[in-house]
Each structure stands twice: as structure tokens, then as C-alpha cells.
Amino acid sequence: MELDRERMAEIGKYSKAYQAPDYKMGERRRAAAMPLLHDAPSRRSYLDVGCGRGEMLDEARGLGFERIEGTEVVPDLLARDLVRFALAHKLPYTEQEFDIVTCMDVLEHLIPQDTVPVLKELDRITNVQLIVSANNKQSRSMGMELHVNKRPYHEWDQLIRGYTSGDVCWISKGKGELSETWVITK
């Protein structure tokens, strides 16, 4: 019950943060993420977990993916087509349902207890390639700390390698970048 209260408190923060029109995927993050989607080895099915305002969904549509979906927990973001409500630790999809799955800069927003269950869920629903990014910097919006699950990148790497299956490639952007990215190929 306490975990549910913690999750709801975090969801409440994002409901407030997304009221600001400029709270979205930043241009630097987008510029780093889009080539990974362009290079994806399949165009059959795509899911973006924690899709926010849908920047990755728009890109996938432009690339001609056959099936595109996103998940989100913020009620105001659910009105967009292709987006359904889902908690990342309990995704409503079958084993290996999506060829390509992304979860971009979401892990650091989760309560720490959900880290392993989320990684396991992402791995479970991915058939071909999983792309995950995480940020370990502070992030404040409207007086709230939004990154409640900050970890050193080597710790993220250990968790991702420990709870996903396949060939894991850590794409380090170097000092000064906002996030690190991992590509897991099944």
C-alpha cells in the first residue's frame, strides 16, 4: 500500500510538470535518440514506455513503423492517439509483443523499488531491440525534484545488464551530456 502511495505522489508531480508547455523531451535528448530509432533493425512494431508528449511516437510514424503505441501515466497526455495508461512495472502486453521498445529518460523518475520490475517488464515485452536511457543529474520543475531515482551510470549499467537479456551496448555520450543510453539487442 505504501508503494502505491509513493507511485501516486510521483505521478502527481508529472501531472503538474506537464502543465507547463515547455516540459518535454529536450532537443539535445531528441537529437541523440532519433538516430537510434532510425537505425532500429525492424519497422514492424514499436512501443515507447513513458512517452510523454509523444516525440518518439511522431518520429516512428514518420519512419513508417507498422504498429506504434506509447504508454503514459499522466492523465492529460492520454488524450493523444496511440497512447494508453500503463505503469511501467506492470505493462499490459504479452511476451515479446513489440519488436522495438524504448524507455527514454524514465528510469530516474521511478520510485527506486520499481527499477528492477520495470527492467524485467521492458525485457519481457521486447522481441528485437530495447533502447533505454537514464539520467543521473538533478531535475527540478515547479519546485519539485523529479529525478527521485538517480544512480551513478556504472550502477545503471549493472542493473540493465543484470535484468535484461541479449547483447547490451552502453552508448556513452561523454561528460556534460544529459543522459546515457543502452541498446539491448535480443
Notable traits:
24% strand; 186 residues; two-stranded antiparallel ribbon; alpha/beta
- Major beta sheet, specifics? 7 strands, mixed
Structural class: alpha/beta
Q: Determine the oligomeric state from the structure.
A: single chain
Number of DSSP-assigned strands: 9
Identify the overall geometry: globular
> How many separate helices?
5
Ranges with pLDDT <50 over ≥5 residues? none
- The helix-strand sequence is HHEHEEEHEEEHEE
Question: β content, as a range?
Answer: 15-25%
- Overall radius of gyration: 15 Å
| Helix content percent band | 25-40%
**What is the residue-averaged pLDDT?**
91
> What is the end-to-end distance?
35 Å
Spatial sequence of strands, sheet with the most strands: 3-2-1-4-5-9-8
Quick overview of this protein structure:
Helices cover 31% and strands 24% of the residues.
Characterization of the model:
This protein has 186 residues and is α/β, with parallel strands linked by helices. It contains five helices and nine strands. It has helices at residues 2-17, 27-38, 55-62, 115-125, 153-163; strands at residues 45-49, 67-72, 83-85, 98-104, 126-134, 140-141, 144-145, 167-171, 180-185. The chain has a seven-stranded mixed beta sheet with strand order 3-2-1-4-5-9-8, sandwiched between helices. A hairpin with a 2-residue loop joins strand 6 and strand 7. Helix 2 (27-38) packs parallel to helix 3. The radius of gyration is 15 Å and the shape is globular. The N and C termini lie far apart (35 Å). 33% of the residues are buried.
